[in-house]
Design a protein that fits this description.
The complex is a heterodimer of chains A (103) and B (145). By secondary structure, chain A is mainly β. Chain A has one domain: Roll (Ubiquitin-like (UB roll)). In chain A, strands 1, 2, 3, 4, 5 and 6 form a six-stranded mixed beta sheet that branches. In chain B, β2 and β3 form a beta hairpin. The chains are: A mainly beta (103), B alpha+beta (145).
Chain lengths: 103, 145
């Protein structure tokens, strides 16, 4: 993987005010191929809602959005912007249900 | 559920469990052929966990889920996780460690949870086969070892 495609990499000044976003779910990818160019100051949940609509996902209550970084998986806050989530460049978001009740 | 209907629903559910998704998430699908999903979760500095979902009678019944080492042998101890999802057991039916989480047959038929009905969950997007796999993966990611 090229170094500029490290998911969720933080703080690159070169990437400007846009990020490129791909969302994976077990109902499909949004966009289906490649990435959408999104203002970095936009809240993450705007794109998640678009994915929910396009992929015809009925309900997403309890779902979590995560990115995978070299240090491991990191949960991001969809109510915050990409910048606030310290995301830049190509952002690959995994979106799906958090583990449910049990125990 | 008629076996043909169960198979059709299974195939609809697994249709998006693609190589691209597997690559992104570190999943390895050893088999996706009705009624079984055999999948490993891998990540840096982690011991691979392999789960096998037996989806007979899907989705009148949730999948029966067994826990395996990378080579396919049954785990005799549960993976370390703070979530409570990986129960050391033994489960009264399988006599093995088991998945103690809504969406697993071993949870819903466990004497402690028989009143937590699968019927109320099965139409949720969180409890498709991909949704259940994702929940297991998220629980595993929170653990160590």
């Amino acid at each position: 993987m090229p170094t500029d495609e490290v998911q969720g990499s933080a703080g690159s000044q070169e990437s400007g005010q846009f990020v490129e976003v791909s969302i994976s779910t077990t109902a499909g990818f949004f966009p289906a191929e490649g990435f959408n160019r999104i203002p970095a100051h936009q809240k993450v949940d705007v794109e998640l809602e678009r994915a929910k609509h396009e992929l015809k996902i009925k309900d997403t209550a309890g779902w979590v959005a995560t990115v995978t970084e070299i240090s491991g998986k990191r949960v991001i806050d969809p109510t915050k912007t990409y910048l606030e989530n310290k995301l830049s460049g190509k952002v690959e978001i995994d979106w799906g249900p958090s583990e449910g009740g049990g125990g | 559920m008629h076996p043909a209907a169960a198979k059709a629903l299974f195939e609809k559910d697994v249709s998006h469990l693609s190589p691209a998704l597997a690559q992104r998430r570190g999943w390895v699908f050893h088999s996706i052929e009705f009624p079984v999903i055999d999948c490993s979760f891998a990540a840096n500095r982690r011991t691979t966990l392999r789960v096998r979902l037996l989806c007979d009678n899907w989705n009148d019944l949730p999948p029966a889920i067994s826990l395996h080492a990378a080579d396919g042998t049954f785990l005799v101890t549960s993976p370390a996780s703070p979530t409570g999802v990986f129960n050391p057991g033994p489960h009264p039916a399988t006599h093995r460690p088991f998945i103690c989480m809504r969406g697993a047959r071993e949870y819903h038929n466990h004497p402690s949870h028989v009143n937590d009905a699968w019927e109320s969950l099965k139409d949720s997007a969180s409890y498709t086969l991909g949704g259940i796999l994702t929940q297991l993966w998220n629980a595993w990611q929170k653990g160590g070892g």
